Amino acid sequence: MKTGIHQTLSLRALCALLAAALAVPALTPAHAIAAEETTFTFNGGGWGHGIGLSQYGAKGYAEKGWAYDRILKHYYQGTRLETKPAVTVRVNLDKAKAARNRWRVQASKDTTITFIQLSDTTKRVALRQLKGSTPAIWWVTTAGNDTRVHADDGGRPGEVVEAFAGRCYVTSDAPIRIVDRSGPFNHTNVAWRGRLHFIPQEATTSICVNYVDMEDYLKGVVPRESPSSFPTEALKAQAVAARSYAYQDAVEKRVLWCTAMSQVYNGQSRPEVVHEPASTNAAVAATAGQLVWYGTETKPVKTYFSSSSGGHTANVEDVWFSTPRPYYKGVVDEDKSGNPYYSWTTGALTASDVSNKVRARVGSSYAAPAPHLITNVALERASTGHVRYANITWSNGVTYKIRGDTMRGALGLRSTKFTVATKRPEPVTNVYSEANANLAWSGPWKRITRGDAHGGTYARAGVARSRFVARFDGTSVRWVGTKGPSFGRSSVAINGVEVATVDLYAASTRTKQTLFTTSGLSQGEHTLTVTALSSKNARSSGVGTSLDRIYVTGGTLLSAPVPVQRYQESGARVVEFGGWSSETTAVASGGSRIFNASVGARAVVDFYGEKIAWVGSKGPGLGSASVRLDDGPSRTISLDASATAHQATLFESGTLDRAKPHRLTIEVRPGSSGSGRVFVDRLDVTGGWVKSPLLPSTRVQETRVKRSGSWTTYRNALASGGTHIVSGRRGSAVNVVFEGSGIAWYGAKTRHYGKAEVLLDGVRIAVVDLYNPTVVLNRKIWGTAGLPAKRHVLTIRVLGTKRTAAIGTLVSVDAFVIKGQPVVE
């Protein structure tokens, strides 16, 4: 395929014909651009693929005095000219190579037109046109595989003059005219040199192929590719290039197009219009038989050519990615003189326009789906200036690499030698208040009314772990809030990655403060997450964070899902009262669950959030439970069901006040059969978290705990409750059963005291030395906190050992302070 200039009477007509021959969409004109949309302006040089001879370049070199052979050797490096005998060229005379159900032909005056059967040249009909009369029109139609010739009957096919088996051809003493539209421009009444072959294609259609001598063919090509007004040496160069381009196709009997898909060939003439100017016919005659050859190759060079290159032709591998050849190497081009397309511009094209055209050209494999738009075009250019690849980034963040020639075709650019200028509009910044429904909240946030805040209010959270999430699709985000003497620090995360810690402390309350901003984000979805930390400035009287406004640049605030936190039944945050048991099972969430069948046993959860759900099991023979939120009424839930269901939602609250802490109590009640298990598997908290339990601190005197071994009671006003017990016998022990998250042991210390071991739930966790040089009473001996809030057993056992300085092995137990409650057994 090649592109070139076509002969016209004026430059304006030249441009019109060229556009028609190339079938290139017209460049989109400049038009009003939406202020909010990115635009791309493509600036380039030349017209056509840019490989091989440049027609305006040949003109320029001819004007400098170069002969045609020098011009050809410049564009096809390392080649020579050789003369070969003429060959017959075959050209389909329909611009789309389409078959027709009729062809109408006409001879010139005073000539004979002869129809001949191809397979048997003895079968023919010669029809003589009488001198001076109007030339007759003959119809050629197809019936089955037969070709028929009809006389004209008032604009209809008349009687059959002759019928031929298969194809036939027509010849005449002068060029034969096709009355209907033919050729690259669909002109009527075009006269064609040589023979016209009619070849049946289907039952009723045939194609028309012009069999024409190479030199006669070139008479109809050269003036279509280069203006006849070009210098003689430029026209000679064009003639040789056109001959070499078609030669091997002719030798191998391939049928060419009559359009720029091969070369533009428009026949000899039409009424009162000559298609073969004397200047171009002379150029064909002067170079008769001459072809471009390279080295020892056995075929002439396929001499691609185009209108112009914008100063430098292209390497073939940079445009079509064909195998590099020395004669397809880009060279400097003298194509500026008189060239209206030496440089060109598309003007500003909207991202929508460019995106739609590229998407239509390359399909879904190399383009983002609508409504995504192209946000950037990065070019990979060869040393000649021609674009090899265009890397196209879409608004979903995906980049595709397409060929420069594909980009040229998609946008109707005149060549692959182009640059792109991108103009991005000033991005729009959208402002959202703390009341926007798309924000997601976690923790006890409150709306604070304050006249100097945006809109008169802002949101505040005074508890660590409180959080808000803003999801957006812009390129920049800004968090505006309030600072003050009782605020703490907050962490800031973008797309889940912590990027900053912000201190919200200020000596006095200051509203409308920019607390964090970031820009340069890729176009697409992002999240801003702000979380109140437990740390604070030393001068601050509290922790917490705030939100007044969110500013999103280049996008909008999207709906963010409210986070849901899942808590397994184990851990310090679920308080178990009444001796719950744990089991490991694959059917449970996290692989384990707790259960209890004792009426009155309770599982208690303190939490922040807007919703909570209890997940457990249902099934035959299971019990029932009463569920209570805060101080509200109890709701009885039966777990006895005909079918077993694990990890089932047994209770789900309505929407709760996020600004307050809440408590959920699950209490075992009698089942339908009077007993039955209740399972607690998991708790799901929406918009919050399970907080440390609000357990009372309960002091238990030594008189209320179990003892074993030998213990003596001593009275002392300084002891807790006025008494404490003492033992020095090895193995004597005290056991405390409690339900809670922590316990502390209080006793006395003196130089008479020795060592004891501490066991929690049967596991030794400490050895404690009670020695002290002076007497102290009601002193904390040992303690632990942060235990799973369930039933535990603490054992204090006398070891009967001491340090060297001690003069005894006694151990004192005075009282226990429990975070929770004691269990009386």
Secondary-structure map:
Elements: H1 11-22, E1 39-44, E2 53-54, H2 55-63, H3 68-75, E3 79-83, E4 88-92, E5 103-106, E6 112-117, E7 124-128, E8 137-143, E9 146-152, E10 157-165, E11 168-172, E12 176-178, E13 190-192, E14 195-200, E15 206-213, H4 214-225, H5 232-251, E16 255-256, E17 269-270, E18 273-274, H6 278-286, E19 290-294, E20 305-306, H7 316-319, E21 344-350, H8 351-362, E22 374-381, E23 387-394, E24 399-403, H9 404-411, E25 418-423, E26 429-433, E27 440-442, E28 445-449, E29 457-461, E30 467-472, E31 476-483, E32 489-494, E33 497-503, E34 510-518, E35 526-532, E36 545-547, E37 549-553, E38 557-558, E39 564-568, E40 574-577, E41 581-584, E42 592-596, E43 602-608, E44 611-618, E45 624-629, E46 635-638, E47 645-652, E48 662-669, E49 678-680, E50 682-686, E51 689-690, E52 697-701, E53 706-708, E54 712-715, E55 723-727, E56 733-749, E57 755-760, E58 763-769, E59 776-784, E60 790-798, E61 811-813, E62 815-822
Parallel strand pairs: 2-20, 4-16
Antiparallel strand pairs: 1-21, 1-25, 3-19, 4-15, 5-8, 5-12, 6-7, 6-11, 8-9, 9-10, 11-14, 12-13, 14-15, 17-18, 22-23, 23-24, 26-37, 27-30, 28-29, 29-36, 30-35, 30-38, 31-34, 31-37, 32-33, 32-35, 39-50, 40-43, 41-42, 42-49, 43-48, 43-51, 44-47, 44-50, 45-46, 45-48, 52-62, 53-56, 54-55, 55-61, ...
